Amino acid sequence: MKKIALLGMPNTGKSTLFNRITGGAARVGNWPGITVELLTGKILLGGDMVELIDLPGIYDIHGFSEDEQVVRHFLHDNVPDLAVVVLNATQIERQLSLLLQLKQLNLNMVVLLNMADEAKKFGITIDGDKMAQLLGMPIHLISAKYGQGQPESMQAIAKALRYPTPGMAESLRTQLEQDAHIEQEMARVLGSAVQVPARLSDTRTDTLDSVLLHPWLGLPIFFGIMYLLFQAIFLLGQPLQGGVNASLGWLRDIVLTPACAGLPTWLSGLLLDGIYNGVATVAAFVPIIILFFLFMAIVEDTGYLSRAAFLMDALMAKMGLDGRSFVMLLMGFGCNVPALMGTRVMRSRSLRLLSMLVIPFSLCSARLQVFVFITAALFSPKAAPLVLFSLYLFSFAAAIATALLFKKQFANAEPFVLELPPYRFPTGHQMWMRGWHEVTHFLRRASQFIIAGVVLVWLLTNLPASAAPASSDTLAGMLGAWLHPLFAPIGINEQLTIALLFGFVAKEIVIGSLAVIYGLSGDALGGALGQQLDWVQAYSFMLFTLIYTPCLSTIATLRNESKSNGFTLFALVWSLALAWAVSFVFYQGARGLGY
Amino acid sequence: MNANDFNPHTPLSSLAIGTVATITDIHTDDALRQRLQALGFRMGKPIEIIRKARFNGPVQVRVGTTDVMLRLSEAAKIEVRTA
Ligand SMILES: Nc1nc2c(ncn2[C@@H]2O[C@H](COP(=O)(O)OP(=O)(O)O)[C@@H](O)[C@H]2O)c(=O)[nH]1
Question: Is the CATH number of domain B3-82 3.30.200.20?
């Protein structure tokens, strides 16, 4: 099968184009460096199946960053049949340098000047034909976001694929003196084919920035926006959650219970009390999670994250981190895994490791489900949002404390240089794709971990068969009793201990397994927890859940990204120790104060 | 032109907000120089200081059609000429 590689600088719209062509759902974000995995898709082009590969964004083919190395190695080991080079038309005066570098590699190339819509708005005129003539390769203006120019460019790609690739210059060594040549060539092409207004007229971005990056108001506005977003998520999400809960309960009572009536007791127990209760309790959170990621996607796509990096860099520097680490912490509120991979944009290993050490403290959406559930069960509707907010504060505090404690060990002098893209707003289609992506992601996790987890918990709480379910004679009861000396000082009972044990695999399992352990789901489970626990125990449990290792995927990612078992183990042990210590101080302190 | 208002060796970090200057030299290591060049920082190019963050945070500059933020420590290594 013929291979087409998408190449270009970061944030030029490669993912958007990739999604448009393949109909897939790669992540897009208005943030330099968000494409973290090599995405591939197969498409039918001119009668043949071809493979499209989205490579990470690079600034310079000779560059030193990890992404630039990935691309170099990729091109070296798998020469593509065609390179589609995506450039941002509004930044053509500088992005041309990458094109000229790639041209020297003698690849079969088609050039797409993306964001033609923005270029037009900013008053930049580009004569594509003239440029194609000067450079001797096919060049098309397109808008990946809105679809302009797509048919023509697909034709050009199909046509170019018919020619064999000329083969590459054998060495990709740094040749700095070539840059002088590149500059002359840039001037020649730009001079006759491109007109850029003397002053860029993106007044919308300038006006927004004068408020959002205001010297004194910038930070308060940032936190205000974050607070409002969370309020909106819960305002919109909780009725949906209630609806899903009610329909799943209805399904159980009206359909599943009668349907399982003929089955042996143990089997209907496993199906209804084990799998169905467990998965249904978790599934009720899907609406909130979707909304959450939708809002994250909008924020990411607007370009506001780079502004957050600008506002927070001075503070982050005091912790041995930088503005990008802060953005990755924010991304971690969605899911820690892509946030950890996002640290690839950092070149200094120390800075990367320190960022990777603090990112797992970000209160991710899976942990959020646990907290929403428990706060709703144990606190009044008035107090619940405040309790949730306090957990976010603890999340930041754990990250800050860890960074301050270890910044000496991970000292670095990484320069901090980052692009500030213009503000953009995602289209309805982009938002829909993102929401859909999260649903499928959840279903994948559900089928992989959650079902297996709840089945295992059900077995542990029902075996040996002679023991009364969920009693102290079951395997779970014995395991809980055995671990009790460790968890009693932090106020966590045996049932919760079992849930924490499984939470190690994925946090979604925590409430799923509580549902199984108590044999209840939804509101009934909340009621039972409310009966059994007081708020001090519940809060201690939440603190532990917040701080200890998020999930197996996070550990695997830490290992993959750091390529060090020692570091991974250190991150693991540190988070466990910190979780225990914080819960201990809280629990004993609160009890000591008479609560 | 008067010699007093013409200084070819001013560090970028010392410019006031709103100043437009011309890049004359980049004294960083090779890796950062390459990155800066790819972002449009080339000799002879005009550069404008858009804003500075509080607490000695990064500066936002505009080179061509690209806005870039960089720390003062990096900005100090970029030499400009003010006219
Ligand atoms: N106005 C406009 N925005 C675009 C276009 N293509 C992509 N974008 C936006 O540019 C940003 C970066 O796009 P993305 O696909 O993530 O870029 P990548 O980093 O190269 O993969 C996102 O906010 C996109 O919505 C386009 O043709 N026009």
Answer: no
